[in-house]
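Quick one:
INPUT:
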C-alpha cells in the first residue's frame, strides 16, 4: 500500500490545488447534468439547477479555503473525493427545498438514503490510504450537518412534522453561535462514537420522516426521539467542556 507523505499547503504545493480543482470539476459536471435531467424528469421549477449549483459552489469555496491549512498531502485524496460526492448529493437535496412536484418526496428519500449509506466510506479510505487529516474529519462532519439541516427543512416542507423539527438541523449552528459568545464552548470536543452514532440516527430518523410511506404519526415520533438524543448529545459535550475547563 502506498503511503502519502505530508507536505505544505496549496500555496507551497500547487499539486494539491490542481488535485482539488480537478476533483471539484469532475463532480460538478455530472452534478449539473443530473440536476438538468431531474428538472425535466420531475417537472421541477426552472430555478432548481441554479439552487443545486449555488449550494455546490458555496461548498467548493469552503473546501478550497480550508484545504491548504488542514490537509498536509500532495492530493485531495480518495476519502475527500467520496465526501465531495456526498456533498454533491446533498446539493441535489437542498435544491428540492421549495419544490412541490409529486415525485419530490420519493426522490429526496432515495438520495438521502444514498448519502447516509456512503457515510463512513470516506473515513475508512482516509485510514486505508494513510491520508487522514483534520480537514477530512471536519469536511465529513459539516457535510453531515448540512444533510441533517436539509432533511429537517424537507420534513417540515412535506408537512410530515411540525416546525419544531427545524431545531434538528439548527442545533449544530446554534452551538457555533453560542461559542461566539461563550469562550468555554470554543474548546475542541474530541470525536466520539456517541456523537457519530447520534448523527447517523438523526439522518435515518429524518429519512423515515420524509419517506412517502411514513404516516405523520410515525414521522413525528421518530423525529422527536432523534431530536431528544441530539439535544442530549450536545448537553453531554457542554458538560465535558466544563469539566475539562475546571481540570485545566
Amino acid at each position: 500500500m502506498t503511503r502519502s507523505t505530508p507536505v505544505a499547503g496549496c500555496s507551497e504545493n500547487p499539486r494539491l490545488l490542481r488535485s482539488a480543482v480537478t476533483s471539484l470539476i469532475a463532480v460538478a459536471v455530472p452534478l449539473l447534468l443530473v440536476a438538468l435531467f431531474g428538472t425535466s424528469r420531475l417537472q421541477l421549477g426552472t430555478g432548481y439547477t441554479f439552487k443545486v449549483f449555488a449550494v455546490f459552489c458555496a461548498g467548493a469555496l469552503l473546501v478550497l479555503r480550508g484545504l491548504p491549512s488542514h490537509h498536509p498531502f500532495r492530493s485531495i485524496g480518495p476519502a475527500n473525493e467520496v465526501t465531495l460526492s456526498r456533498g454533491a448529493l446533498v446539493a441535489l437535496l437542498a435544491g428540492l427545498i421549495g419544490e412541490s412536484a409529486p415525485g419530490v418526496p420519493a426522490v429526496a428519500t432515495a438520495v438521502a438514503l444514498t448519502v447516509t449509506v456512503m457515510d463512513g466510506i470516506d473515513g475508512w479510505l482516509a485510514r486505508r490510504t494513510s491520508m487522514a487529516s483534520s480537514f477530512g474529519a471536519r469536511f465529513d462532519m459539516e457535510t453531515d450537518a448540512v444533510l441533517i439541516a436539509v432533511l429537517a427543512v424537507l420534513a417540515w416542507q412535506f408537512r410530515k412534522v411540525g416546525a419544531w423539527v427545524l431545531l434538528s438541523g439548527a442545533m449544530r449552528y446554534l452551538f457555533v453561535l453560542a461559542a461566539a459568545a461563550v469562550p468555554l464552548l470554543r474548546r475542541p470536543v474530541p470525536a466520539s462514537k456517541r456523537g457519530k452514532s447520534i448523527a447517523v440516527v438523526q439522518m435515518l430518523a429524518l429519512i423515515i420522516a420524509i419517506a412517502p410511506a411514513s404516516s405523520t404519526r410515525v414521522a413525528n415520533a421518530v423525529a422527536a426521539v432523534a431530536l431528544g438524543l441530539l439535544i442530549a448529545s450536545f448537553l453531554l459535550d457542554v458538560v465535558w467542556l466544563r469539566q475539562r475547563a475546571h481540570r485545566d
